[in-house]
From TrEMBL:
Keywords: Cytoplasm, Lipopolysaccharide biosynthesis, Transferase. This is 2-dehydro-3-deoxyphosphooctonate aldolase. InterPro entries: Aldolase_TIM (IPR013785), DAHP1/KDSA (IPR006218), KDO8P_synthase (IPR006269). SUPFAM superfamilies: Aldolase. Pathway: Bacterial outer membrane biogenesis; lipopolysaccharide biosynthesis; Carbohydrate biosynthesis; 3-deoxy-D-manno-octulosonate biosynthesis; 3-deoxy-D-manno-octulosonate from D-ribulose 5-phosphate: step 2/3. Its main location: cytoplasm. It catalyses: D-arabinose 5-phosphate + phosphoenolpyruvate + H2O = 3-deoxy-alpha-D-manno-2-octulosonate-8-phosphate + phosphate. GO terms for biological process: keto-3-deoxy-D-manno-octulosonic acid biosynthetic process. It comes from Desulfopila aestuarii DSM 18488. Residues 15-268 form the DAHP synthetase I/KDSA domain. It comes from the Bacteria. The lineage of its organism: Bacteria, Pseudomonadati, Thermodesulfobacteriota, Desulfobulbia, Desulfobulbales. One of its GO terms (cellular component) is cytoplasm.
Amino acid sequence: MTDISPVAVNTPAGRFLVGSGQPLLLIGGPCALESEELARAVASTMQEICARLGINYVFKASFDKANRTSITSYRGPGLEAGLATLARIREDLQVPVVSDIHEVHQVAAAAEVLDILQIPAFLCRQTDLLSAAAKTGKPVNVKKGQFVSPWDMKNVVNKLHESGSDKVMLVERGASFGYNNLVVDMRSLPVMRSLGCPVIFDATHSVQLPGGAGGSSSGQREFIAPLTRAAMAAGIDGLFMEIHPDPDKALCDGPNSIPLDQVEELLTRLLRIREAVGDTF
């Protein structure tokens, strides 16, 4: 079994750990903040489901999606308004929150609100951004770039460690396979766990077809369940899911989002797999 250093997440409702022997973590919510009403609905519903299932839950929604395919694509409400919305949801629901940071100047303000700072896949090698995130003392969740091998994520981990962070989580979200296509190499999960960090499987971005709709990305959400079952059997510490009440009407990443009303059934099945496999990976 890989020796994983648990990552402590301090939340409005207390502290929990991510790693070996710990409850499953779920990071989930709409791709981008659309309305506060929608965000609250997803966060409260998922909070209830996860409490029932014994899963640690963190609400996710981006205040700004800076890497959209088209300049006209919806990006979110922006730094100031988005963080204000996330702060209210965090306080009112007592639920931890995470969002993407894209630039160094966003880090300080984001760290005032967010319980976890997330580094997008396209930016996983940006040294200044990683260093600034590490210096906040907050857990840093790094998505492995589609262009990066799992063993090369050791350099990302080293950058964060050298910058003062021992709270690092790594996310698998598929690797580029030709044009407009991603594949998931399940070997990457134990490889990244061997770096000593908890590993999270991004169940929804892994079925994305980048730029597949011409002016936006497409996706194959029918493969979310089988890929997630495989990842759970391979051994992971957490899941990341983009969750929306009506993905076909989502303003961002709808084709690869899972409908809110399908999440509990999938999580219930996944926990059975986790129980059967045990913490022996």
